[in-house]
Structures are given as C-alpha cells and as structure tokens.
Amino acid sequence: MLLFLLNRIIARPTFTLILGLCFASSANSLEVGDLTVESSLGDPFAASFNIKHQQDLSEQELIIRQAPIEIYQQMGVDTAMLYQDLRFSLGEDGQVKITGKAPIKEPFLNFVVQVVWAEGEMVREFTVLLDPS
Question: CA-CA distance, 43 to 103, in Å (whole number)?
Fold first, then answer.
C-alpha cells in the first residue's frame, strides 16, 4: 500500500512535468534536417543540412558548431572527427553549410553538431559513409 501511494505521489507530478516540458519545448522548438553530403573520399568535407524554427533566426541568434568533447563522450560517439577543422555557416534560407580544410581519408565519419539559440540547445549526431569516387 505504501509503495502504491509513493508511486502515485511521485509518478503523477513527474508525468505532468514531463508533459509540460514537451509542450513548452515544442513552442520554441528547432528542427535539424537530414545531412546532404557534397564531397567524396579524399576531398575536404562538404555537407549541408536545413534548420527550421518557428521564427526566422539569423546567424547572430544561432550558434552552430561541432559539439565539445564532453558531449561526444556522454553520447558514446568516437571523437576522431573532433580534430577535423569543420566550419559551419548559416544561409538566409536556413541551410547550414559544413566545410572542412583537410582531405577526408576515412570513408566512415561520425560527428555531433551542437545548435544553441535563445530558447534552448540541441545536439544532433550525423553518420556519413563517403563515396570513394
């Protein structure tokens, strides 16, 4: 009986809190689209993805970068791509371009992008298999 009461006392407020957070975050949510790879193995990395937000955000209102090592470790993602000099730029149409300087030597890439804006923060893991041609 005590376990049942404790479960009801803890579970109901927790569920309400989670439900409230879901609705609150959807009002200011940001959506990151799929990655489009524009480079091949041996080329400098080039790719893009779209960002959608309920309000148009400028490049000054968004921070888009490769996630720090702590996030890679928390997510269990290999940190090899952290050492690539990836640059992120946001176009007016919401398209984020990712470019690298050094040629990519490995066909399999795994990296994490962090997006920070006034209402929140999100991370997205991308996995890429580069075409050798």
Answer: 5
In this predicted structure, which of 24-28, 66-70, 91-95 has the lowest mean pLDDT? 24-28
Contact 89, 97 (CB under 8 A): yes
Dihedrals phi, psi of 94, to nearest 5 degrees: 85, 5
Cα–Cα distance measured from residue 62 to residue 117, given in angstroms and rounded to the nearest whole number: 5
- Token duo for residue 107: 């066909």
Q: What is the pLDDT of residues 40-53, one digit of tens each?
A: 999 999 999 999 87
DSSP type of residue 5: H
We report the CATH number of the domain holding residue 103 as 2.60.40.10
Q: What's the number of domains the chain is made of? A: 1
